[in-house]
Specification:
By secondary structure, the protein is an alpha+beta fold. The chain has twelve helices and 17 strands. 34% of the residues lie in helices and 24% in strands. Strands 2, 3, 4, 6, 7, 8, 15, 16 and 17 form a nine-stranded mixed sheet that branches. It has a four-stranded antiparallel sheet with strand order 11-13-9-14, with helices on one face. Strand 2 and strand 3 form a beta hairpin. It is elongated, with a radius of gyration of 22 Å. The structure holds glyoxylic acid and manganese (II) ion (2 copies).
Length: 414
């Protein structure tokens, strides 16, 4: 074992500084893809990478690669990484702990005198969060080839602006075709992340090692009814898109509760009605529905049930329905020998650990399709995430960074 000393105070200071680069004031963190805050956040992280002596490049969708060149730079590099974009009303640790934590892990390894045989690459993924285009893991989907460049090019945001328009204005050059990486490009990928669940804290365990990531999916529904004057249109004459949407949101809850699996979860997280005036019958509704499960079969049965119920509700109410399956992803299975390697590192360092499932998705969901992958989880207070009061202590993060550093060192040694 090497003598790796992590500077937890410096890391916490950097986490706090990055949190101030936000579209909303503290304690809220919001960094929507390619917003001014996202771009400034990227510059902040790139400066830290440069200071740490890493060589920077970026691909056509804005995934950033920061490389510590190894003794034999002709060998495939090992990789770590996460994201710094943040949903509206987020906290400061989701994704950030894995990016800034990886920079600190590299600095700690350098300080210890360690020199990697293989290069070590830190990837800061573009748009892990489904903010601007409603699709999560945009960068890692393209990297892994799960999302094709032609499909990605059709993505539109709420204002009808394309991915190409956004990425070009953010300074990303090259074709989306060039983003894909070959299978086996990295012999190892390890992502450090906060747990975003209560298990580690409840069980008083320092580290989670991810064996599987639950299967996510997203439906987008556009409902078109008939608008009109709230006073003049009598109830039997109405085709209210908002009421049809409300019924669908309740049908989502019923469908996920009815699969027989306690792991099926469904959330209607986007619910917008137009024109949004108190004295006007909603003529349009837009829903985005997130459905997940550790098992693909029960997730799929919930999806089918939601689609069938939505069609029935809209037919009954005389509302037109357009449904798009934005993403329907399989679960990811992590690499057993890499899971064992992280477990061995924990044992050697005397750190308690638990092998577990991730209910949240991560860029690892897609990296696992092209290279042996796992994740290192850090406990977070009350399991809270996607909220401004998300919290992991500097000591909890320090432990995660130490385990990451040692895992990277061993993986890059030969
Ligand atoms: C990632 O942020 C997720 O929604 O699981
Ligand atoms: Mn998140
Ligand atoms: Mn995340």
């Amino acid at each position: 074992m090497m003598n790796i000393s992590v500077d937890k105070n410096r890391l916490q200071k950097e986490i706090d500084e990055l949190a101030l680069i936000s579209e909303a004031g503290p304690p809220v963190v919001t960094r929507v893809l390619f917003s001014e805050a996202d771009l400034r956040g990227r510059e902040f992280v790139k400066a830290l990478c440069r200071d740490a002596g890493l060589v920077l490049r970026a691909d056509a969708v804005g995934n950033i690669f920061a490389r510590w060149n190894g003794v034999d730079d002709t060998l495939p590099a090992i990789a770590t990484g996460s994201h710094i974009d943040a949903i509206p009303n987020a906290g400061k640790f989701d994704g950030v702990a894995g990016v800034l934590g990886a920079i600190e892990a590299i600095r700690a390894l350098k300080k210890s005198g360690y020199r990697p045989h293989r290069s070590i690459e830190l990837i800061i993924f573009t748009a892990e969060e489904p903010t601007r285009f409603g699709l999560g893991c945009l960068g890692s989907r393209l990297l892994s080839g799960v999302l094709g460049p032609e499909k990605a090019a059709t993505a539109l945001d709420r204002e009808g602006k394309t991915l190409d328009e956004w990425r070009h204005s953010a300074g990303c050059t090259g074709s989306l075709q060039s983003v894909r990486l070959p299978k086996g490009c990295y012999p190892t990928f390890v992502e450090l992340h906060i747990e975003q669940g209560p298990v580690l804290e409840q069980e008083n365990t320092a580290i989670g090692i991810v064996e599987k990531i639950a299967a996510p999916s997203t439906l987008r529904m556009q409902l078109t009814g008939v608008g009109g004057h709230a006073g003049a249109v009598l109830m039997p004459e109405r085709h209210d898109a908002g009421l049809a949407a409300a019924e669908i949101a309740l049908a989502v809850e019923r469908a996920v509760l009815g699969t027989g699996s306690p792991d099926t979860v469904g959330t209607t997280g986007v619910f917008r009605i137009e024109p949004g005036a108190v004295n006007s019958v909603p003529f349009r509704a837009l829903l985005e529905i997130d459905v997940r499960d550790t098992q693909e079969a029960t997730r799929n049965s919930a999806l089918a049930e939601i689609e069938a119920k939505a069609a029935e509700i809209c037919q009954r109410r005389g509302v037109a329905l357009q449904t798009e399956r934005v993403n329907v992803d399989p679960p990811a299975v992590c690499d057993p020998s890499l899971v064992k390697k992280v477990a061995d590192v924990c044992s050697q360092l005397g750190v308690s650990y638990k092998k577990m499932i991730s209910r949240a998705y991560h860029d690892t969901l897609f990296m696992a399709q092209i290279c042996p992958s796992t994740m290192i989880f850090i406990p977070c207070r009350g399991g809270v995430s996607h909220r401004p009061d998300e919290y992991s202590s500097p000591e909890q993060i320090e432990t995660g960074v130490r385990i990451l550093a040692q895992t990277l060192a061993e993986s890059a040694a030969g």
